Amino acid sequence: MAGASFRVPTVLSADELMDKSFKRASKISKKGTDALDGKKKTALAKVTASADIVTTTLNGYINRFPRIDKREDFLPELIDLIIGIDRYKKALGALNWASNRIDKLKNDSLRDIRGTKDPVRIEGIKNSFYGRMSSYIERINGDLIFLQDAKNKFRRIPAVDPGVPTVVVAGFPNVGKSSLVAKLSTAAPQIAPYPFTTKGIVIGHVKDDWRMFQMIDTPGLLDRGFEDRNDIEKQAVLALRYLTDIMVFILDPSETCGYDMNKQSALLEAVKANFSSIPTIVAESKNDILKRDGGNISFSAETGDGMDELTERILSLVRVVFREKAVDSEEI
Q1: Using CA atoms, how far apart are residues 234 and 167, in angstroms rounded to an integer?
Q2: For residue 78, which of 191, 197, 236 has the smallest C-alpha distance?
Q3: What are phi and psi of 276, to 5 degrees?
Q4: Distance (Å, rounded) from C-alpha 152 to C-alpha 133?
């Protein structure tokens, strides 16, 4: 799952799946040694083709949707929040149930057709098969619709890699977060859709010698107090904890962002409280407009002033994370 967008199939509804199956079967006609033999061979081929189309399609969905275990980690937490892992597994289980039932129904129907010489009976077995297969497909229509909706939601999950060090940039809108990510990234940052924000998250990849890490600006996710969020947004912030190795919080002393320093400082304290175990760098932007004396790093993404100091501070913490991850890997 890590580091790549989910590639899941488009899911047909029950009606669409049945149409696909029956249209294929309706085109089949077999010749036999006589009329009865031709009718039997045609019925056998129709039942086989229609069933195989359905089971192959359902099994394709089961195999192509990602396997997800519910555990305490960023992507599983986020997927559980967006889609619901228990319901997701139930839907895939329902498809597996239907596929197995239809496969057994096919084999039983083929056996019964082979065992009769009554043309009326042959037609009855075939039609009964169609009816029972349709019933099975109809019973999982809700699961098919759920999985199609899940497919659309999978597409909105950010293509971040939980396996590499991650620097998350926080602060109010317009303080210079995206500009910082763009300046430090070796390539133009990617804009990825995100389920809880009005804008896409900004993902930049930064190279430090042989090391590569990612910087993420999450507009709409960490730009207001935790207590001001709805339950879904709170869960998203909590899920973000699993991803974040280093937090860079940007203050704008010039207040040209539209938020005064009291509000910015209050948000800083709220972020620190919710990410208390995460190393946090506090930096003040736009020093080409206003530069304050104090303990925080002061920089301007526009002029480049202070960028070297901020970059080195970030890299020094990232290198620590790399060393820690290397030790953990050796222990495993």
Answers
A1: 20
A2: 236
A3: -65, -25
A4: 28
CA angle, 311 then 315 then 318, to 5°: 145
Residue linked to tokens 């899911």: 11
Q: Which of 160, 156, 193 is nearest to 8 (CA)?
A: 156
Interatomic CA distance for residues 139 and 137, integer angstroms? 5
Kindly list the distances between the CA atom of residue 120 and the CA atoms of 28, 39, 49, in Å, as whole numbers in the listed order.
19, 10, 21
Question: What whole-number distance in Å separates Cα of residue 279 and Cα of residue 165?
Answer: 12
- With residue 264 as reference, give the H or E element that holds it: helix 261-274
CA-wise closest residue to 129 among 104, 97, 95, 106: 106
- Indicate the pTM of the whole model: 0.68
For residue 226, what is the enclosing H or E element? none
- Amino acid identity for residue 21 in this structure: S
Residue 287 clears pLDDT 50, i.e. is over it: yes
Separation between Cα atoms, residue 205 and residue 184, nearest integer Å: 8
Tens-digit pLDDT profile for residues 90-115 = 999 999 999 999 999 999 999 999 99
